[in-house]
Structure formats: structure tokens, C-alpha cells
Amino acid sequence: MNSTLLETKNLTYVYSKGTSSQVHAIRDICLKIEKSELVGVIGHTGSGKSTLIQHLNGLLKGTSGTVLLDGKDIWEKKSDIRKVRFRVGVCFQYPEYQLFEDTVYKDIAFGPTNMGLDRDEIDRRIREVIYYVGLDESYLEKSPFDLSGGEKRRVAIAGVMAMQPEILILDEPCAGLDPKGRETILSMIKDYREKTGSTVLFVSHSMEDISKIATKVLVMNESRLAYYDTVDEVFRHADELRNMGLNIPRLTKLFLMLREKGYDVNTNVYTLEKAKQELLALLSKGGTDK
Amino acid sequence: MISDITIGQYYKGNSFIHKLDARAKILLTVLFIAMIFMCKNFLSLGLTFVFVVLSVLLSAVPVKMYLKSLKPIIPIVIFTAVLNMLYTGGETVLYSFWKITLTAEGLTTAAFFAARIVLIIISSSILTYTTVPTMLTDAIEKLLSPLKVFKIPVHSLAMMMTLALRFIPTLIEEIGKITNAQKARGADFESGKLLQRIKAIIPIIIPLVVSSFRRAAELADAMNCRCYTGGNTRTRMKQMKFCFKDFVSLLVFCIGIAGVVLLNIKFGAVI
């Protein structure tokens, strides 16, 4: 526990370098991701989240700075970059549009086959991950194009999980889903991490979602790393977050307002259950000022 | 590499040529190409060259842009020139070595062919750089409208062309996204034998085709929602007008062609 798995040092990436339209996508990112963390990544559109992710599995190479996986530079040997992608599994936004095989089984097998695993191992992994994403073996022989949107997305995520990456990165896995779909994906991520003990990074635009399951929050703002800390610590900067155009969860906001009015309450409240406890505690004290 | 494609690229401007009617510009391009092919000696080729240079200057598009559009066809120009140089028979032998003979006639032919290809690319680039794609397809529709007599759905064809042009950048972006997603699953596009490389493209092609169909269906729905019916009843927001300057330009080019013919007759053909 608590050993660094993935580290970036002064990572900077510049789009169209040397031309008039030169843009810094990310600037000077220094980041240490520990083993078994569940990191929620949040930031405004265009803050550099997706660019950062593409550096972590070597789809992009930083203009300057390094990415270290287990203490080794991922670009040390250029021919080994595919091995890095098996260890750092990335599932992009709207992954349902990347399905291409005629059965779910074959599509999930794409990653493991590229790894050169033998057939039995691939079969075992497929039957394992299909349950991780909340589907069952009856789906394996179906065509991915006959599934519903939410099911397609879960199949696509299973395709990345099947590579058994040490760190799983999901770019907005909940985008465009209804509340129930979001809930399913969130609890799926949480279960996956608990069962496999792997490290997970997920991008979301909802502080509510992040505060529900994440152990740490990474906040990106204007191509820089703004915060990387525990949920409680980050939400302490409510005002700064608001200036970045981000919102803290509504429940937390309520308790911050109560605190402002002079009531003695904790403000690290993200779930209804916790809110209930806090309110009951407050009432038992008579609900008085200070 | 894929972003080097210059087809349908518009260079924003406000020059004389930008302001010409799109129909006139298409006709002018046709006249241009006719002119290029009618050249039979270096004087008439020179005259055509002057026309091209003047048009490029009038378009106010940087010369760099034209060079960019020429870049992808350099291999074709060289290939054609070399073939013509070696396989054109002639009497005036300049140089002979083993089985290779260079003749003055061969050199002339090679120069002519190279010049023709380059001039054609430049003249058609003038058209695409100075005309918005939608205007271009509108103009094609107008020019082809006599074909309606033969029950050819000219309007639908023009609309299809507009949409096809519109979706080129979208598809390029899509290819990028899908490629990244498959690379993240360990797909290998860079190594392997030819057959393996062709097979490696399947995971990109299939999602691309699927999403193109999806986009097409969505677009059709969106058009239906706005009561698109197509056909003759539609009016246009921008009416095309054939003005004085369009007639003048066409006239100038007709005189140019006459000049080429005269020069051909007066000084004889070398090709």
C-alpha cells in the first residue's frame, strides 16, 4: 500500500508548437498516484483532462517532462510503449463507438489477444469481466450492435478491464447516461476496485459522483494541476472551486451555509446518510447557535 | 498526413476572384483546362502561364497555399515527365547511353506534360481556394439544371455533394478518436507485414462505417424535422447573380483561348 504507481514530473504538452496557434494543453504537471487509489478527475471543459490522460498511457508524448510507471520512464524504450498501454488501461469518452466485432465475446477479446495471451486465459478473463460490468454470460454471444447504449458502454469498458491493467482510466464513463445508468457505472467502478485492488482514475463533471466513491480528487484548471488531495481537503476550497467554474456537491454547500450562519456542523458531508447524522446531532444539541 | 488534404479547402478572402459568381468560376476553370490542353508550342504555353500567374495574383491567396496543393502530386509529375522523356521517339538525339536515348522531342514532351499537370492543379486550386464549398455545389446544381429535362435529380445530387464535403473534417476527427481507442487496447498499426497491416485497419473501418450510418440517419431526421423536401420548390438565401465582371472575365478567357489558337497556327506545333 501507499507506494507510488504512476508519477508525472513537470509534464507539459504544447499543441502546434512553433506556430501562431500554439496552445499549452497541460503545463508543468507533477503528480503521484498511489496504488489502489480511486481518483476522481474533474475540471472545466478544455482544462487539459483528456490530454493528461493520453499522456499516461503513451498515446501522446509530452513536449517536456516525464511519465514514470513504477519508477521507470514509459518512453525509455519506444518499442515497449504497447506494453505500457496494457498496464495503463484507458477507456475513452463514448467508448461504445469503438466496438467492431460481431459478438461481445470477440470484442472483449481484442485487448487480451493483442497482449498475446493463450486462449484459455482469454476465455477465463472474458467470463470474469462480464460480471464486473454487471452483465452475464448470455450477453457474450450477442452482437454488440444489438445492445442498448448503456450496455454497449459496459461492454466497451469490459474490453479494457479484460487486459487487467494495473491502473484503469475511464474518461467520463457516465456521460450521456440517465441517473440510473450513472449509478450503475459508479457502483461498478467501486466494486471493480474493491474486488481487484487495482488503481482507478475516472473523469467526471459531477462533484456529486466523485464525492460518492473517490478516495482522492484531482482538479485541473486552465491546463494546470489545481489540487490533488483527499475529497475533504479539496472541498475545503469551495470558493476557489467556484471561481474555476466547478461546483461542490449541493449537500456540502448546504452545510457550508449552515456553518456560515453560525451553526456548529461538520462540512465534509457528501451523502444523504452523513447529512442525516449531522442534522440529528445538531438537533440533539438543541439546534442552537454555537 | 491525412490533414494535408486540400480538397474543398477555402481560403477566406475578399479579392476580385472571391467575389466572382461561382458559376462563372466553374466555367472559367473549364476554359482554363481547355486552354492548357490546346497549347501546342511554347509561345501558347507561355500565354497560358501568364493567365495562370495573373489569376493567382488576383486571387490574393498566398503562393504558399498553391505550393501546398502541388506537394502531393510532385511524384506523379516526375513519373510522367520521366516516362515521356524516355519513351518519346525522335530524330534529334542529344545523349545516348546503353539503352537510354535522350531526344530533344522527348524533353519537349516531358516539359509539356509536367507543365500541364502543374497548371491544371493550380487553376483548379484557384477555384476551391476562392469558393465556399456550398456555393460550389449550388453553382454545379445551377449549371446542371438543364439535365432536369431528362429526369435527373440534380438538386439531390448537389445536396449529397454538399453533405459529403461537410463531413470530411468530421470523419477525420472520428478516425483519430477511434484509432486512439484501439491503440489503447493494444492495436498495432505500425509494424507487421502488408496483410497484417491491412487487417489492422478493420477495427477502425467498422466503427467508422457504423457511425457514418448513424450520423446519416440522425441528419436525415434533423432535416425532416425542419420540413426539408428538396426539389424545385426551395428558394435560396443567397441568390446568385451573374454580373458585368463575370461576363468580362469569361470574355477575357475566350480571347485568351483565341490567342492560344492563333499562336498555335502561326508558329506551328512542337507537340
Shape of chain A: globular
- Percent helix among the residues of chain A? 25-40%
Largest interface: A-B, 23 and 17 residues
Low-confidence stretches of chain A: none
Order of strands, widest sheet of chain A: 6-7-8-3-9-10
CATH fold-level assignment of the largest domain in chain A:
Rossmann fold
| SSE run of chain A | EEEHEEHEHHHEHEHEEHHHH
Amount of beta strand of chain B: under 5%
- The whole-angstrom Rg of chain A is 21 Å
Which CATH-level-2 architecture of the largest domain in chain A? 3-Layer(aba) Sandwich
Percent helix of chain B: 55-70%
Q: How far is the N terminus from the C terminus of chain A?
A: 40 Å
Helix/strand-derived category of chain A reads alpha/beta
Oligomeric state of this protein: heterodimer
Number of helices of chain B: 10
Overall mean pLDDT of chain A? 89
Index terms:
heterodimer, A: 290 residues, alpha/beta, Rossmann fold, 2 domains, six-stranded mixed beta sheet, four-stranded antiparallel beta sheet, 10 strands, 39% helix, globular, B: 271 residues, mainly alpha, two-stranded antiparallel ribbon, 10 helices, 3% strand, flat
Task: Give a description of the structure.
The complex is a heterodimer of chains A (290) and B (271). Chain A has 290 residues and is of the alpha/beta class. Chain A has two domains: 4-247, Rossmann fold (3-Layer(aba) Sandwich); 249-290, no CATH class. Chain A is built from eleven helices and ten strands. In chain A, the strands form two sheets. In chain A, strands 6-7-8-3-9-10 form a six-stranded mixed sheet, sandwiched between helices. Chain A has a four-stranded antiparallel sheet with strand order 2-1-4-5, covered by helices on one side. In chain A, a hairpin with a 2-residue loop joins strand 4 (64-69) and strand 5 (72-73). Chain B has one domain (2-267). Chain B contains ten helices and two strands; from the N terminus they run H-H-H-H-H-E-E-H-H-H-H-H. Chain B has helices at 16-19, 22-38, 42-59, 63-70, 74-87, 104-130, 133-144, 154-184, 194-225, 244-267; strands spanning 93-97, 100-103. In chain B, strands 1-2 form a two-stranded antiparallel ribbon. In chain B, strand 1 and strand 2 (100-103) form a beta hairpin. The interface between A and B is medium-sized, with 23 and 17 residues.
